[in-house]
């Protein structure tokens, strides 16, 4: 109970900190910074109007956030409703991707992979910067799109690949280290089969992967931004891309809050579940 309260308070702090940081960056960054990001003059005018209407008003914005009011987008629609509608569209793809990720990690942990492929995957994920890896993996996934006819399948597979690569690489490394431990060698010496040993190691694998779940969630959301735009699905990724392109500040801030809540929720859940494991 104590860890749940502590982690929940930290999660709330994370959400408000993310919102405040993005708010102040938008308020103080020079226009040249937005030009460097590829944001056009028309969008800069929208940003200038937002800065003028929100001058010295973060206290009001903070109070609205506490009451669940995320403001209105440039289309004069409630931000909260737009995010919830987009989340409902993205939810099936995210759910299927999550199942694919869980199945892939289970296969790596229980069945194993050839050493040369496991090492290649682990080295690839560790070497490349996160967003480069995500971009390459998403492009690779979408390259098989002509072979598939259902956008849901294409989106789900493409979404699953980056976090699956991240967690599978860790699962491979963790399992290989566990298989070389003295405790496991003793089980092999007593006649235990590899399948039986790997089955017993799955609980330990879950314990060691739990701290990485929020990173996998970030990878999932990052790939969502690429996949939905490329496949043409009007979910959270497309909504985020539209908010960035138009500099729809209230919508962008609302999305930051939504993503922060989900990532913080995953982190809290992982910490609470991990605390239930015996040391």
Automatic annotation (TrEMBL):
Residues 103-268 form the ABC transmembrane type-1 domain. The keyword Ligase does not apply. GO terms for biological process: transmembrane transport. It is found in: Cell membrane. SUPFAM superfamilies: Photosystem I subunits PsaA/PsaB. It is a multi-pass membrane protein. GO terms for cellular component: plasma membrane. The keyword Transport applies. Its main location: membrane. It comes from the Bacteria. Keywords: Cell membrane, Membrane, Transmembrane, Transmembrane helix, Transport. The chain crosses the membrane at residues 9-29, 86-108, 120-142, 218-239, 251-273. Pfam families: BPD_transp_1 (PF00528). This is ABC transporter permease subunit. It comes from Ramlibacter lithotrophicus.
